[in-house]
Amino acid sequence: xxxxxxxxxxxxxxxxxxxxxxxxxxxxxxxxxxxxxxxxxxxxxxxxxxxxxxxxxxxxxxxxxxxxxxxxxxxxxxxxxxxxxxxxxxxxxxxxxxxxxxxxxxxxxxxxxxxxxxxxxxxxxxxxxxxxxxxxxxxxxxxxxxxxxxxxxxxxxxxxxxxxxxxxxxxxxxxxxxxxxxxxxxxxxxxxxxxxxxxxxxxxxxxxxxxxxxxxxxxx
Length: 220
What we know:
alpha/beta, Rossmann fold, Arc Repressor Mutant, subunit A, four-stranded parallel β-sheet
């Protein structure tokens, strides 16, 4: 998720990250950033300081109250006191404007590597009945069709494939996705499962994620 007040910079950042295969969300910088983050559950937040509603420091504090998502500050401010304040409010790294897009991408990738050690496990490929999950690429494929997955979609699919047709409880799925967060509405899991189903349907795997009433989910 990229929260940037400058339209030009926001577009360039989104384009640069998109070239590396990231799915980039660019919410209205004058909106409720904390609510957008809770709704979309991104893997990382790129956060400007000079925002119209609240400044980036305050948004960072609000996000940190409920989430440990990696946060990269980007700002035209470069005084050491600004950097110190950004890190003190919960930011993980700081990048002063103007910056090279290659540097931003490198920082984003480094933060993701440190935050999410789930990706490079012993085997990055999981398969069930012709559906293949590449955890390193966050990509699902079936019969030659491929689709990008969000981090949450990849975690959900990996857990379901690992169950080999057995039920994964809602508690297990929520623990896998949000073990470090204070409170998550159960409806957020429903939203993420719905997104996974939609993504899988785009490669011909519609209906593969089955709801087991009162128990959880499993792969058909």
